């Protein structure tokens, strides 16, 4: 019989990929078969996702995955989808899309915050949903919709799954980012729908990671060359839920930083923390795989760096007509320049709402430094260093608060995602937190996506701790120690990075 392999569709705010996951004994091998850039675009006068273009890329990737599997004598046992959270498509009864989905960076939800909080006290919202306040949370965006009658809101991964299978479901880890999900009951907080004048049937039924969603529609099977019996299985469809499931922790006393466009900084808990102190610190209780709680806060993240690079590339193009410069090289050079600058330079608050929207980021960062009485100048190396110093300080602050509010012990900080490749940021994080930092895997989100599919298929077994040990055994990591310019590479086989210690973040 053909060997089963799993296709992970993982789409972040800055890039998407389709990855094939193979089980080699008890190890998971990931092969990227398709990659594409992503980003919100100005469409019809608003910041939106080119969802039709994204879906074409998904189909291209699935076709490539099928071809690769066939070459290897394998069969795609299932498909799992994860993307960024919060955003949704509005689907009419006939299945058509009411509008091109808005990006959470569009800003239209913000105008609704005061009205929503007038209808339901934010303290009451938090006591039920445990969701951190972000002005773009789904409920504020829904409050801005002029007409929801007869329509269903499908979160982005659920919308893609609907287009693949014809089945409408809402996966629960991502549902927990809407602001309309009960953190304790694990169900929709339907008591909030009527006061917000949202239709009762606005959302599709919930599914948990590991549950089946459907099989491929005939048209999709034809376009991808995959058999129509291929199942689409729910995974942690919130990318951060999948990433946290693949943190290569060997013991319980870990914190994580899921580092991509955002930095999601926190700990894993078994029960939500819904206290007023937690609300005031703006910590979130998002749902993880297996009913866990991702107790974390959003830190502004590498978005600040991505946007500076975009601005500098545009300026460079305007100046020299140079379209050939590679962003990768540019990033490596800038990080090198930043690493040679002394510690103790100016910092900004990376979480400030002033940085949510795109455009003119170097100038906005300079303005923030100057408003606080500092100076930064226009040198890109200095601006990059300011961003990374600010992120590291933000991580340390956030982790200290997570420990204090949750009582969770933390001895090791794991950084996963694209940002785990940023050696300077990893070292600055070790220095700022006083804790060892274990960096990697880069593709933790895809790894988590594949593991949940493999477990649903019976190819691996166990709870999250077992899945994490499996990741730790096979995926390479790099360890950074506080106050040292030294890093250790290798598998975590010795467990040397996981010595229990009191947190240095407090
Ligand atoms: P998302 O899922 O939000 O799209 P990723 O996890 O793909 O984000 O991470 C993207 C980020 O990773 C980039 O913004 C960049 O800062 C960082 N990154 C990617 N490659 C490298 C690299 N070679 N060195 C340092 N940082 C990198
Ligand atoms: C990261 C992420 C994060 C959300 C944001 C909208 O990709 O899913 O967890 O807060 O995007």
From TrEMBL:
Keywords: ATP-binding, Disulfide bond, Kinase, Nucleotide-binding, Rhamnose metabolism, Transferase
Presence of the UniProt keyword Nucleotidyltransferase in the record: no
Keyword Lipoprotein in record: no
UniProt cross-references to CDD domains, sorted A to Z: ASKHA_NBD_FGGY_RhaB-like (cd07771)
Carbohydrate kinase FGGY C-terminal domain: residues covered: 255-457
InterPro entries: ATPase_NBD, Carb_kinase_FGGY, FGGY_C, FGGY_N, Rhamnulokinase
Spans annotated as Disordered: 473-506
All residue ranges annotated as the Carbohydrate kinase FGGY N-terminal domain in the record: 7-244
Protein family according to the UniProt entry: Belongs to the FGGY kinase family.
Name of the protein this chain belongs to: Rhamnulokinase family protein
The organism of origin for this protein: Arthrobacter ginkgonis
High-level lineage: Bacteria, Bacillati, Actinomycetota, Actinomycetes, Micrococcales
